[in-house]
């Protein structure tokens, strides 16, 4: 699986919800989570907290399936890009102490980076630098499990060049936060791990938060898995690569403590927090905005190896929502919605996961190569026995789940494929968008 320290965005249409948090009943939420666990859809830990105090938390599955070590609410997970929130706080603390300025140019530290004389630290924080995202490179998976030096990593980023003129638009790039990590190390003359420990971990008494090392479930940590007919153990990224972009591990308790401290003014000033919350073309500085009906939350998502994560905070309600997963075979957005709906007393469905079984002969009508006039993507559909396999151009082959007549889904990314065999067409529905593909 290609590593990206970003993940799903959490979009909902706005509507009025009159239910209050006081009407909480988590019986149905437990049934929802039971169904996910029984059908191998989710392993991990979830938390809801009101004003910093947990009101619902539960762990599902295993931290180590091979040794049958069950996950607990204290299990540590690699949190991927949620790390960017920690890094942003450290950068803003450095600005408040006069060690850095968000208007400072990248050229002060790395003049070899293209356009570094135009790129500010603020642009790095808000993904407006144009610096190419090195984790998108085809060769990334050839080295991601091995230690990489600062010199080598900066060269990789520098060689990637620029994707657009600085500050002309926004596009997610892990390169931005890797460079910010090195900049913090330079101004403090300490390792990122030491800076994190001294400025956030110790003051907040975060017992499970650190730069990750090789996972050890015997010490409360978890391995990660992907599901391909069964759970498959994932390789582990070396922490020297993601750094402040995604190299932190934590648990739901620590994340709840961190985000409550952030929004209550215990870490940075109100002015600095507003800089984080300022959304420009979908990106804040180290965080996103997440709407839930008429409510608005802030936080970040994450993905690294087989881990997927979400941390959100709704300031008006003082509500924390955290989902840390080491095995996901379901749409994470639906898990978030179930948590939120349960908290606010809104109804939701418990999935049954009754399979639609198709024969190899029935699948033949869907096979072939499809192209779209709307996007530069080709889809090749093949079969493996009674399974339909999708091969999007430039991406890995993916096994689809039949969910209705002529309908298949890949639920981890909420992609739905609806075929019209008579016309030789397939419609892809994802993230509120629809794309028509025709058989070639």
What does this structure look like?
- There is one protein chain.
- The longest helix is centred in the middle third of the chain and has 15 residues, at 174-188.
- The strands form 5 sheets. Strands 14-15-16-17-18-19-20-21 form an 8-stranded antiparallel beta barrel.
- 24% of the residues lie in helices and 26% in strands.
- With 440 residues, the chain is of the alpha+beta class.
- It has helices at 27-38, 83-96, 121-125, 150-160, 174-188, 192-204, 252-263, 270-277, 332-343, 360-363; strands at 42-50, 53-60, 62-64, 69-70, 77-78, 210-211, 225-227, 231-233, 248-250, 288-292, 295-304, 307-314, 319-328, 368-371, 378-384, 387-392, 398-404, 407-410, 415-420, 425-430, 433-439.
- The chain is globular.
- The protein folds into 2 domains: 1-354, DD-peptidase/beta-lactamase superfamily (Beta-lactamase, 3-Layer(aba) Sandwich); 360-439, Beta Barrel (Lipocalin), CATH 2.40.128.
- The two termini are 28 Å apart.
- Mean pLDDT is 92; it is low at 1-23.
- β3 (62-64) and β4 form a beta hairpin.
- Keywords: Membrane, Signal.
- It comes from Algoriphagus boritolerans DSM 17298 = JCM 18970.
- Residues 46-332 form the Beta-lactamase-related domain.
- Residues 1-23 form the signal peptide.
- Its main location: membrane.
């Amino acid at each position: 699986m290609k590593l990206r320290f970003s993940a799903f965005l959490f979009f909902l249409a706005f509507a009025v919800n009159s239910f209050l948090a006081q009407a909480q009943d988590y019986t149905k939420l437990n049934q929802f989570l039971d169904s996910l666990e029984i059908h191998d859809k989710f392993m991990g830990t979830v938390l809801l907290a009101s004003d910093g105090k947990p009101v619902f938390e539960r762990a599902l599955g295993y931290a180590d399936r091979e040794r049958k070590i069950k996950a607990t609410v204290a299990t540590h997970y690699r949190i991927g890009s949620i790390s960017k929130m920690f890094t942003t706080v450290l950068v803003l603390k450095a600005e408040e102490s006069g060690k850095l300025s968000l208007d400072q140019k990248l050229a002060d530290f790395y003049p070899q980076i293209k356009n570094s004389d135009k790129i500010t630290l603020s642009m790095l924080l808000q993904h407006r630098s144009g610096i190419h995202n090195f984790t998108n490179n085809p060769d990334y998976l050839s080295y991601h499990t091995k230690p990489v030096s600062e010199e080598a990593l900066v060269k990789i980023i520098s060689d990637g060049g620029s994707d657009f003129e600085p500050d002309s638009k926004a596009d997610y790039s892990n390169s931005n936060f890797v460079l910010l990590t090195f900049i913090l190390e330079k101004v403090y003359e300490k390792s990122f791990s030491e800076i994190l420990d001294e400025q956030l971990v110790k003051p907040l008494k975060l017992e499970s938060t650190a730069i990750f090392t090789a996972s050890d479930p015997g010490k409360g940590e978890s391995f990660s898995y992907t599901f391909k007919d069964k759970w498959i153990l994932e390789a582990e990224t070396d922490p020297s690569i993601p750094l402040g972009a995604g190299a932190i591990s934590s648990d739901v308790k620590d994340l709840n403590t961190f985000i409550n401290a952030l929004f209550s003014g215990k870490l940075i000033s109100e002015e600095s927090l507003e800089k984080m919350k300022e959304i420009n073309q979908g990106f804040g500085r180290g965080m996103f905005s997440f709407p839930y009906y008429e409510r608005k939350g802030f936080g970040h998502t994450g993905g690294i190896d087989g881990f997927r994560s979400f941390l959100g905070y709704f300031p008006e309600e003082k509500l924390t929502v955290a989902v840390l997963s080491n095995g996901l075979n379901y749409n994470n957005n639906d898990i978030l919605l179930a948590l939120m709906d349960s908290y606010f007393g809104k109804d939701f469905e418990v999935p049954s996961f009754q399979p639609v079984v198709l024969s190899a002969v029935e699948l033949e009508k869907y096979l072939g190569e499809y192209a779209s006039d709307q996007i530069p993507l080709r889809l090749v559909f093949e079969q493996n026995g009674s399974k339909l396999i999708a091969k999007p151009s430039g991406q890995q082959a993916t096994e689809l789940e039949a969910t209705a007549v002529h309908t298949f889904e890949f639920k981890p990314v909420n992609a739905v494929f609806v075929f019209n065999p008579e016309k030789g067409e397939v419609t892809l529905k994802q993230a509120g968008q629809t794309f028509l593909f025709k058989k070639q």
